[in-house]
Write a structure and sequence with these properties.
301 residues, mainly alpha, Rhomboid-like fold, 2 domains, two-stranded antiparallel ribbon, 4% strand, elongated, Rhomboid family intramembrane serine protease, protease
Length: 301
């Protein structure tokens, strides 16, 4: 945002640059589907349809997939989400929304001033105070989809297209969407708290940094080599703090929220996934609300 033998363990270092684990029998094949019994990643060739979803050949041969409760009737992603036929659908929708708003900005010159993230400022055109402190909380989320310059939206959308699909495939559509929105809100909330009250900011960078933090958490969960993502994260943080006119608060806020929410999603116990995921997201939202309320109280007395 301007002012980016037991059950074998999962294969190590498999799956390539997609960020997904590799099939336990074919490590070079990235997949977001796991066996519903042993939870090992399996590629389409190894998927065996059974009464409790897709299972790996070994579980089918051993009969370990029979006689159990059917709590897993469909193939599940690493985080427990339903496996979708198009693991890029939500990412495509987010891209479309950002581009649509970008076009609308050019069609309406006053749109930016009504939707950007600003704490409290005086609008001389309408002779009134505007901003989140004036009750315009919608700015916290509308600013996440708002861009003014072509290089700005181009960089953010390229980052979204690179980071989004692997996370969407690993988390599932609903969890991925919630993580993206919470990271964007987290970036806006920290900007609201720490930036100058009349300093406007806009852009998807907070949400993008959230995806970057979530990617790091996911790779750590899969025991992949962390060096590439840590180097990328470090470079982005250096760029954030050294380049002028960048709302570093939004980047840091998005990064922290994205990483925290992702941690709760990928480390939740299998038997309590839904509960842990819900509590994680609710807790993140409550913290964001608390930050906004605190800052509003500071600005309005």
């Amino acid at each position: 945002m301007d002012q980016v033998p037991g059950t074998p363990q999962e294969p190590q270092g498999a799956g390539g640059a997609s960020g997904l684990p590799g099939c336990y029998r074919h490590p070079d094949r990235a997949t977001g589907v796991t066996c519903t019994r042993c939870e090992r990643p399996i590629c389409p060739e190894c998927m065996v349809s059974a009464s409790v979803g897709f299972q790996c050949p070994e579980c089918v041969r051993s009969g370990s997939g029979t006689g159990h409760s059917a709590h897993a009737t469909t193939p599940r992603t690493l985080a427990g989400g339903a496996v979708a036929s198009d693991p890029k659908l939500v990412t495509k929708i987010l891209l479309g929304l950002n581009v649509a708003v970008f076009i609308a900005v050019y069609a309406s010159s006053g749109l930016v001033g009504r939707l950007d993230m600003i704490g409290l400022a005086f609008d001389p055109q309408h002779y009134q105070l505007v901003g989140v402190a004036e009750g315009q909380w919608y700015r916290l989320i509308t600013a996440v989809f708002l861009h003014q310059e072509i290089p700005h939206i181009a960089f953010n959308m390229l980052s979204l297209w690179w980071l989004g699909p692997p996370l969407e495939a690993a988390l599932g559509r609903l969890r991925y969407t919630v993580l993206y929105l919470l990271a964007g809100l987290g970036g806006s909330a920290l900007s609201y708290l720490l930036a100058a009250q009349n300093q406007p900011s806009l852009g998807a960078s907070g949400a993008i940094f959230g995806l970057l933090g979530a990617t790091a958490v996911l790779l750590r969960r899969l025991n992949y080599d962390m060096k590439p993502v840590l180097i990328l994260l470090g470079l982005n943080l250096v760029f954030t703090f050294l380049w002028p006119n960048i709302a570093w608060q939004a980047h840091v806020g998005g990064l922290v929220v994205g990483a925290a929410v992702a941690y709760g999603m990928v480390h939740a116990p299998r038997q309590r996934r839904t509960l842990v995921h819900t509590l994680t997201c609710v807790a993140a939202l409550l913290v964001i609300i608390a930050v906004v309320v605190l800052r509003t109280f500071q600005l309005t007395g």
